[in-house]
Amino acid sequence: MSAPTVELPSGQKMPVVGLGTSQSRPTEVAEAVKAAIDAGYRHIDCAFKYGNEPEIGAGLKVKFEEGVVKREDMFITSKLWNTFHHPDDVRGAVERSLRSLGLDYLDLYLIHWPMAFKRGDAVFPEDAEGKMMWDDTPFTDTWKALEACVEAGLLKNIGLSNFNSKQIQAVIDVAKVKPAVIQVECHPYLNQKQLLQFSQEKGLVFTAYSPLCHPNRPSTKPRDPSIMEDPKLKPIADKYGKSVAQVVLRWGVQRGAVVIPKSVTPARIQQNIRLFDFALTSEEMATLDGLDVPFRIVHLDWVHHVPEWPFHEPF
Fold this sequence. Notes:
It holds the Pfam family Aldo_ket_red. It catalyses: a primary alcohol + NADP(+) = an aldehyde + NADPH + H(+); S-nitroso-CoA + NADPH + H(+) = sulfinamide-CoA + NADP(+); S-nitrosoglutathione + NADPH + H(+) = S-(hydroxysulfenamide)glutathione + NADP(+). Its EC number is 1.1.1.2. Substrate binds at residue 112. The strands form two sheets. Strands 3-4-5-6-7-8-9-10 form an eight-stranded parallel sheet. Strands 1-2 form a two-stranded antiparallel sheet. By secondary structure, it is an alpha/beta fold. It is globular. The protein has a single domain (7-302), classed as TIM Barrel (Alpha-Beta Barrel). It has ten helices and ten strands.
């Protein structure tokens, strides 16, 4: 089974279900990529920050050599980390990910966060007091350097991740190459209704990361809400003979989002793409919409002093 696609401004097609690879251990992620491709996935979401791009590249290489897929069949995303925002660092970061993944180009490359950290090799550069050191490079300058990478043929599409609506608009206002995608945390407990609508009005494809609210995340606290145990969802899942996870992911794609659930378990990887043989009713969609808390998992509140921290704005 393969997923339907959505068309980007470039004309390229992006599958609406992809494999997320954040927090996937290098020892597991190559097998996850191979299992996903065998299950019909043609969209893999990566990032330099995840520290596993060489292993993802190894998994892709196996499937290319087996003839299961060709490069042009796959949609591969990566992301520019915060320490590489300076225009002089952007192309080197792109080329580093390409080498790690064993690719000649990326289908999509996102600015991972709007905040620029101090340039250098430290992923989280801290001062002597443990406070994050940031850089004043405007993300609009970073965007122009990414546009040059598009012109050079290294990137097919470029976009944004974890930007708020004002920051998205600031990029649109200077862009020669239109942002294709905005990727943010989104699940029924953080439904991002306003940002979804804003993005759709601006012509950006909206991608939901952590679409299952990270049920097995290491930072889970006892009082955190759990989508998998939500009593309103099991009856819907039972009605369709589906899992709660499939219902949640179906809600995501049915409201117009691309979803990139993470898993390294082959059975769950297979299950997460089987979303297109049922549809939720308007009442069921409203039930999921009504679960909004909002509850954010990925907030980086320890860098809220950095000027471009995105969550000062309501959306």
